[in-house]
Amino acid sequence: MWDWQRFTLAQLTAAAQQWQRDQEELLARALVTLQEARHAHQEELKFHRDRQQQQDICLRLREKVSVWYTITQGAVMIPTLLDGFFYVCNYATMLHPQSHFFNPF
Q1: Residue 102: which residues within 8 A CB-CB, separation 6 or more?
Q2: SS3 of residue 10 by DSSP
Q3: Could you tell me the pTM of the whole model?
């Protein structure tokens, strides 16, 4: 009987020690998993912040290009408008050479 009690006590002690080791291992694995998930989440947040920053930069660039395009289109039209103005001035001068009409030349 005494041997049976010692055997049972030894088995209970071994089972408790094994359970404690398993619990510690499980907690260590859970901690590693949580750290990996946190790292992955931070990487995902960084990716989204970078993507948003890229979109903001693209939007500002698109606005600047639009303004530049509008200005250059206006600049392209200026010589045409000036040519028309000078033509009218020259034509008016030819019709009325003695007038005080503005002559840019």
Answers
A1: 89
A2: helix
A3: 0.51
